[in-house]
């Protein structure tokens, strides 16, 4: 997580440490939620290796969840496109 925080704020100058911590926590929370949701959808039973259908399911699940999160966070932009 340290590489995420240092690389993401490198060009921003002074960043509020509390805001940075909040963003990092929120990011971790979203990743955890998406992982849990996709695990329930894509894994029938734990196996030693991830097979191709399960891998494809995880990839698609993460992409769809990310798109849903983006749409939820940008309702004004979506409405302006439909006008």
From TrEMBL:
InterPro entries associated with the record: Tim10-like, Tim10-like_dom_sf
Any Pfam family hit: zf-Tim10_DDP
| Top-rank taxon, per record | Eukaryota
Q: How does it sit in the membrane?
A: Peripheral membrane protein
Residue ranges that the Swiss-Prot or TrEMBL entry lists as coiled coil = none
**Membrane-spanning segments:** none
- Gene Ontology CC annotation, any one: mitochondrial inner membrane
Q: Name one GO biological process term.
A: protein transport
Give the domain note: The twin CX3C motif contains 4 conserved Cys residues that form 2 disulfide bonds in the mitochondrial intermembrane space.
Its function? Mitochondrial intermembrane chaperone that participates in the import and insertion of some multi-pass transmembrane proteins into the mitochondrial inner membrane. Also required for the transfer of beta-barrel precursors from the TOM complex to the sorting and assembly machinery (SAM complex) of the outer membrane. Acts as a chaperone-like protein that protects the hydrophobic precursors from aggregation and guide them through the mitochondrial intermembrane space.
Family, similarity comment: Belongs to the small Tim family.
Q: How does it assemble?
A: Heterohexamer.
Name-wise, this protein is Mitochondrial import inner membrane translocase subunit
């Amino acid at each position: 997580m340290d590489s995420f925080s240092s690389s993401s704020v490198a060009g921003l100058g002074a960043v509020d440490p509390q805001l940075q911590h909040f963003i990092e926590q929120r990011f971790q929370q979203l990743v955890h939620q998406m992982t849990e949701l996709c695990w329930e959808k894509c894994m029938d039973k734990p196996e030693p290796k991830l097979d191709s259908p399960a891998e494809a399911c995880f990839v698609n699940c993460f992409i769809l969840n990310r798109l849903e999160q983006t749409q939820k966070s940008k309702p004004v932009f979506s409405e302006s496109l439909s006008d």
